[in-house]
Design a protein that fits this description.
- The chain is of the alpha+beta class.
- It folds into 4 domains: 165 residues, GAF domain (Beta-Lactamase); 105 residues, 2-Layer Sandwich (Beta-Lactamase), CATH 3.30.450; 66 residues; 149 residues, Heat Shock Protein 90 (2-Layer Sandwich).
- The chain contains 15 helices and 19 strands.
- The strands form 4 sheets. Strands 3-2-1-6-5-4 form a 6-stranded antiparallel beta sheet.
- Strand 5 and strand 6 form a beta hairpin.
- Helix 2 packs antiparallel against helix 5 and helix 9 packs antiparallel against helix 10.
- It is elongated and about 145 Å long.
- The chain starts with a helix and ends in a 6-residue tail after the last strand.
- This is histidine kinase.
- Its EC number is 2.7.13.3.
- Keywords: ATP-binding, Cell membrane, Kinase, Membrane, Nucleotide-binding, Phosphoprotein, Transferase, Two-component regulatory system.
- One of its GO terms (molecular function) is histidine phosphotransfer kinase activity.
Length: 536
């Protein structure tokens, strides 16, 4: 097969694809096309006018005037020749034209002598048919009549464009309808409540889960009326939530909505704790705008957390009293209140006292962590000079230094930065850093404490020359119940909560914590705090 034939086959395939996309073959008559053929026959004074579409087997007449047939074979069609030309195709006398003189449409009915056809292009430029006029006597169109036929053909092309646009719109509508149905099924299958509003602040989505939780469907209410129909409360479940604090309203205004806990008390349902997160759909616009909020039911999690808190409080209380008595008794025995003790008894009492102290520390750490997680640990923040707090921490923890045979030193310097902190809780952080440094230092080692001002922050560093920390373990140090995974660390003990508590406390004072260390080369535990500009 020649390259020319391959090219012709390719073009014909494209043309037929364009015709198929129009979905017009074998469709009912349409007034717009019928008007075109009527005007063409009238203005060009011919008995026959057609809108003809040519597929691979036939020419089919979308509209016809003066002809009973609905279609003819393609091999007989004058229009099959017309669509090969870019412009008007005219045959003045078919009986004298060697291409058509023996055509049954010329020798028989409808006895064609004159033919003029203007190709009709699809919206993508493929010639799919013609607007043609036919006469039973030889003739030619005048220049004015040729222009008329061209203009009418352009109107036919415009009708095809409208048709394709309508088909595309219908396809998009079906796709949107399908997508909407899919979205509804997905929303219905979610275990979360989903609510959304449009740019005007009116509810546009309120899925079935949200309706069930709220006990009503408030889709048609304006944003300002939501709070009247939502039985929403603060996280404590007792104080009504102000209307301007409803999570979706906050998101609509452009405020951050991240892990906000509220309560929903729908009629006939128990109080439900939900965690809300969301935001604007188009935040780059600025100002109020369409927003969405997703709500997760955390009622069981909250109930479990409350039970845990109650359990810890009960256990801590029940342990404190006997533990205090045990520690007191051991202290009296070791002080010689009952007389001198043999060395073996003294050793056992020392071990018992150390373990009592560790158990007391664990109870205190558990309670502190529980209060921090529940948001019940109130910090008394006020401007303080930092250096005196650090010096006091060194003095308080001197027994640790003596116990592990280390010394510490506050680096001299004129800087005495002011920070806004809770002094007692900052002492707790420093004590944890210092005690850890002492535990994991070698006997005779020096622990240095440094205050470094960097921009609008101060960094406090506790630097030791101890055993160091493996790089892979460092990211885990400030997590709960994490201890170094080596035998030396196990022997030195600890609750595994100290650094996690330090992290929580410092972050609540708007600071950060971290560590820099190399295994076998010591560690630097640090925390940063913003400088305060207040004047004492």
């Amino acid at each position: 097969m020649s390259d020319h034939q391959n090219t012709a086959d390719y073009r014909e395939a494209r043309r037929l694809e364009a015709l198929a996309r129009l979905q017009i073959l074998d469709t009912p008559s349409e007034q717009a096309f019928d008007d075109l053929t009527e005007l063409a026959a009238r203005w060009l004074d011919t008995p026959i006018a057609l809108v003809s579409l040519v597929d691979d087997q036939r020419q089919w007449f979308k509209s016809r005037v003066g002809l009973a047939a609905e279609q003819t074979p393609r091999e007989l069609a004058f229009c099959a020749h017309a669509i090969q030309a870019a412009g008007l195709f005219e045959v003045p006398d078919a009986a004298r034209d060697e291409r058509f003189c023996d055509n049954p449409l010329v020798t028989g009915e409808p006895n064609i002598r004159f033919y003029a056809g203007m190709p009709i292009a699809s919206p993508d430029g493929e010639l799919v048919g013609t607007l043609c006029v036919i006469d039973r006597m030889p003739r030619q169109l005048s220049a004015s009549q040729q222009d008329t036929l061209r203009r009418l053909a352009r109107i036919a092309e415009f009708q095809l464009q409208l048709r394709l646009s309508l088909l595309d719109s219908e396809d998009r509508a079906l796709e949107l309808e399908h997508q909407e149905a899919l979205n509804q099924r997905l929303l219905g299958s979610l275990k979360a409540g989903v609510v959304a509003c449009d740019d005007a602040g009116n509810l546009s989505l309120f899925n079935s889960v949200a309706q069930r939780w709220h006990g009503t469907d408030v889709m048609k209410l304006a944003a300002a009326e939501w709070s009247r129909y939502y039985d929403l409360y603060q996280a404590n479940g007792t104080t009504p939530l102000p209307s301007d604090a409803v999570p979706l309203l906050r998101a609509w205004r452009g405020e951050p909505v991240e892990n906000i806990e509220i309560c929903i008390g729908a009629v006939g349902q128990p109080m439900r704790h939900v965690l809300c997160s969301g935001g604007q759909l188009n935040p780059e616009r600025g100002g109020p705008g369409a927003a969405i909020v997703v709500m997760h039911d955390i009622t069981e999690i909250r109930r479990a957390s409350d039970l845990k808190s109650q359990f810890l409080a009960t256990v801590s209380h029940e342990l404190r009293t006997p533990l205090t008595a045990i520690s007191g008794a051991i202290g009296l025995l070791r002080s010689g209140a009952t007389g001198s003790l043999p060395p073996a008894s003294e050793r056992l009492l020392r071990i018992a006292q150390e373990n009592s102290q560790r158990l007391s520390e664990l109870i205190n750490d558990l309670l502190d962590m529980e209060k921090l997680e529940a948001g019940q640990l109130d910090l008394q923040l006020k401007p303080q000079l930092l250096r005196p707090i650090v010096q006091q921490a060194l003095e308080i923890n001197q027994p640790y230094a003596a116990r592990y045979q280390v010394s510490w030193q506050l680096e001299p310097g004129s800087a005495d930065p002011m920070v806004r902190v809770d002094e007692r809780r900052l002492q707790q952080v420093l004590s944890n850093y210092l005690s850890n440094a002492a535990k994991f230092s070698h006997a005779g080692g020096l622990i240095q404490v440094q205050l470094l001002i960097e921009g609008d922050e101060v960094e406090v560093q506790v630097v030791d020359q101890g055993i160091g920390i493996a790089e892979e373990q460092q990211p885990l140090l400030f997590n709960k119940f994490i201890q170094l995974d080596n035998s030396n660390a196990r022997q030195r003990g600890g609750t595994g909560l100290g650094l996690a508590i330090c992290k929580e406390l410092v972050e609540r004072m708007d600071g950060q914590v971290g560590v820099r260390s190399r295994e076998g080369a010591g560690s630097c535990f640090w925390f940063r705090l913003p400088l305060s500009r207040a004047v004492l």
